[in-house]
Amino acid sequence: MRETDRAEKSDNREHQAGSVNIAGAGLAGLSAALTLAEQGIHCNLISVLPSERAQSVMAEGGMNAALNTMGEADEPRFHFEDTMKGGVYLADPNAVKGLTDTAPDIIRRLHAIGVPFQMKGQEIVQRPFGGQKKKRTAYAMSSTGKVVMTSLIDEVRKFEASGSIRRFSHIEIRKIEIKNARCLGLWGRDTYTGKSVFFPGPVILCCGGLNGFFSGMTTGTTANTGSLTASLFADGVQMGNLEMIQYHPTTAAISGKRMLISEAARGEGGRLFVRRRSSCGGQPEEEWYFMEEKYPELGNLMPRDVVSKEIYTVIHDPDLEDQVYLDIRHLNKETWSKKLSDLRKEVIHYLNIDPVREPVPISPGIHFFMGGILVDEQHRTNIGNLWAAGECACQYHGANRLGGNSMIAAVYGGHVAALDAGKMKKNGALPAGPEIPEAEETGNTAVQETVLVQKKMTEILAEGLGIYRNEEALQKALQGLENLEKMTEGKEERQRLLLAKAMVCSAIERKESRGAHARTDFPERDDVHFKKTTVAEYDGKNIRITFRPLPALRK
To answer: Where are the domains of the chain?
Structure first.
């Protein structure tokens, strides 16, 4: 039977037998599917695009794990310490410890199933990445996401062939059905036929970040609209740390989005500089490698929030030019041929600059959302039978994500969520599947309204949620979103505006500076009041922002 035929039969008996539904087919989704299949539990892998077009394919730099292959006496506890410090102690320490303890085994398994990590003899080569004192980033040139996804897709196909995993790669997920604080299943639209289809049963959300809220400003795929997360928030799903938005320091503008120039370039010795203005008004004077002077220990490999803020500072200095450059001209031929050749090709293709011969002009761009759907250590949401993993979830990264931690966290998070769902399934805690509810009208509005609302929302958020923030700009952004909401009729657009308001409200209530959240009116870190998770919740009428204490690290 064709996939289309299966998707059209919303009353399919196998679906109602209690399959676990996975919403999204990137790293977290594939990891969850494999974990369930290996437990003998059937799952549906549901996405609007095939895995080959998931956001995860775009990941470049590498995956962190304390393999200790570089003779630096690395251990998981050092990875834990760097991750907690990089996130300014805003992540759940028990969840982070689980991640860092398990990371070496994940890398070894990925290598065993065919991921071609950079090797030296029998050892996986690791390079330095920002915010870490050890070389612990395993990589495959600067295309790590692509090769990891390829290997996981092949593993999943083995279980697809046996029927343990059923893939639906053209279903736009429209809504999670929630009743009495429990997930009953998900609604999708078959993009081939236009028909609605319902998948009863528990759901693991692996639906990616909120790139669509910042159209044209992010390095991520425009397919990650954030609309599903917005609908979940409107239905009472709690969000965490929505104000924590990572600006990657080295990006460049291309058509419709930002091009990521991987941290791998700085990991291999790339240097950032700005030119001083001439005192006589002529040509710029010498190149100032400001990160090396300001941060002699880690230099250009400071955490991303620090580097982005320093770039912002220097380009607004009247004594300096308003353009920062990434200098990788000095790297040797072996580095270019064996480690960064694909990055060079991308820069030449998209920017018409050969980085071997010219410095690359860069500026910060939105790259990752540390906040998202609030989950506990087992990746459970506040809704029964609903889990979340990957970039859509708020879990491992606190106030700032370290480079190399996103892919490892996605694989680990999908695994943990599936283990918990599988355990509940085996214990009989998951229902076999309810009666199919009546399809709800999605309230689609004219494309023109959607485009106009999106454009205006992006402009408002960009002004309020920049690298530096303050009360006046945030209140102005909130007022702008409320005004836009009054002029908007479409249900989906109003849900997106609701979540956008929650992002701004979270930033307003966090009256301190921590990681990616830098407030000029509250420049100091306040551990007494704000070393806590920001929780955003909608009760059907109002957005409520509270702060939840972090759990203590178990011994």
So the answer is: 250-364
